[in-house]
Amino acid sequence: MAGGGDSLRALLRAANALLQQRRYHAALAVIKGFRNGAVYGAKIRAPHALVMTFLFKSGSLREKLKSIAQATYAHSRNLAYFVFTYKGLLAAQSRLQGKKIPFHSFLAACIGGWLVFGDNNPINSQIIMYLLSRILFGLSRLAVEKGYIPQPKQDPFPLVAALVWGTVLWLFEYHRETLQPSLQSSMTYLYEDSEVWHDLSDFLIYNKRTDSK
Fold first, then answer.
1. Are 116 and 78 in contact (CB under 8 A)?
2. Fewer C-beta neighbours within 10 Å, C or N terminus of the chain?
């Protein structure tokens, strides 16, 4: 029994010594990137899938739990694969050229995005739209920082908020099919289901009546 404990401690010391080796840093960073991608994807997707599934999806408890598990797994797997691919390609380019340059990040991420997120499915679509909104804000700030567009004299955010909400509600009312299904579900709940009720039960307590009254 003691021999087994000694062997385990020796193995842990060897592993820790390996992790301190600078020459393995790039490869180890790729592995940890895979780990972090998987964990982060699960942390982000699980609560979101839980809320959206129980709010808007019908079916048995077993079916709902299965849907949550599948969505969480898909998000976690894709993010892990992407981080692994991105960091691996980044390290390879840096090694080949002897230094890291900004284009390496762009190229590695483009290839990773094509390979991992290129399939047009609900999970990937939601991730891409999430990133797109952040990119637009980031590029706008960068353009001001670099002097490509003048610094606004007043905060433009109220105008952006007005245009975003005006556009999305116009699309929902008149071109609903162009919006992502989860957004359609959310907006239906907020703006259409609130138009229908029969008595106090489905006015304040429930969204919709489930009986046959």
1. yes
2. N
Q: Which residues of 91-109 are buried (b: 16+ CB within 10 A; e: fewer)?
A: bebeeeeeeeeeebeeebe
Q: DSSP state, 205?
A: I
Distance separating alpha carbons of residues 131 and 125, to the nearest angstrom: 10
pTM higher than 0.85? no
Reduce the DSSP state of residue 118 to 3 states and report it.
coil
Residues 138 and 182 grouped into a single domain: no
Judge whether 172 lies within some domain: yes
Indicate the DSSP class of residue 10: H
> Which of left, alpha, beta for 59 (phi over 0: left; psi -120 to 50: alpha)?
left
**118 phi/psi in degrees, rounded to 5:** -75, -20
**Could you identify the residue written with the tokens 């239906």?**
188
Q: Is 138 exposed, middle or buried (0-12, 13-18, 19+ CB in 10 A)?
A: exposed
Token pair, residue 28, equals: 């180890």
Question: Each residue of 39-97: pLDDT tens digit?
Answer: 999 999 999 899 888 877 888 999 999 999 999 999 999 999 999 999 999 999 999 99
The DSSP output letter for 152 is: P
| 76 touches 49 (CB < 8 A) | no
pLDDT in tens, 15-48: 888 888 888 888 889 999 999 999 999 999 999 8
Residue range(s) defining the domain that contains residue 69: 19-118
